[in-house]
């Protein structure tokens, strides 16, 4: 695991953008495509805005990137709470991507059908035995959740499915999410966390006792890949770095 402490969100976003750009270039030396999982939330928004500007817009081979999402709120694409909508508005509408390479989590199906549909897409890209995504972007909530793995939910314990959906009582909505088994087979997993309100939870996740039901972000441990935490100084104020 590698932890990088940035001054602020701007610094953090540049560090992640530079890591992503480098990894894309290196990976495409031996592969013909790059698989990237996007995250929702406020912190990635600044990263997406940065990637849509120079030099990233012109220097990254966007047509070689295949886009996926880590999770989605079960609301229409037009809803401002939709993670894919945010990614399109801040990044995908501004760079030369290939439409067929963009795989949003569909919310126009029943939630069970949507999760099965997405799992089928993933299995068309990856085998059950090998590595999965090249790069997975994740955030961490104040409650320690990542993806839609919220404290105390059954999806945390999923061992077989790569995608699952469920009703989250606290938000009165369905969620669809990648699970730990598929994310932990990725080559690189990158958490981004900012703000003083994340400091204590970050300490619990990184340095506290192992309790994935209480701190779901702890369950993300790449099997053969590399785990990165990019945090700003406020979020890192309680950890030993």
Tell me the series of helices and strands, N- to C-terminal.
EHEHHEEHHEEEHEHE
Tell me the helix content.
25-40%
- Architecture, according to CATH? 3-Layer(aba) Sandwich
CA radius of gyration: 17 Å
- Assign the CATH class: Alpha Beta
Mean pLDDT comes to: 97
- Give a count of the beta strands, DSSP E runs of length 2 or more: 9
Global shape: globular
Number of domain units: 1
Strand order of the largest sheet: 1-9-8-5-2-3
Helix/sheet category: alpha/beta
Distance between the termini: 12 Å
Explain this structure.
This protein has helices at 9-27, 43-51, 56-59, 83-92, 111-125, 180-183, 199-207, and strands spanning 2-6, 34-38, 65-69, 71-73, 135-139, 163-168, 173-178, 188-193, 226-232. The mean pLDDT is 97. Strand 6 (163-168) and strand 7 form a beta hairpin. Helix 1 packs across helix 2 and helix 2 packs parallel to helix 4. 41% of the residues are buried. It has 241 residues and is of the alpha/beta class. The radius of gyration is 17 Å and the shape is globular.
Produce a short descriptive summary.
The protein has 241 residues and is an alpha/beta fold.
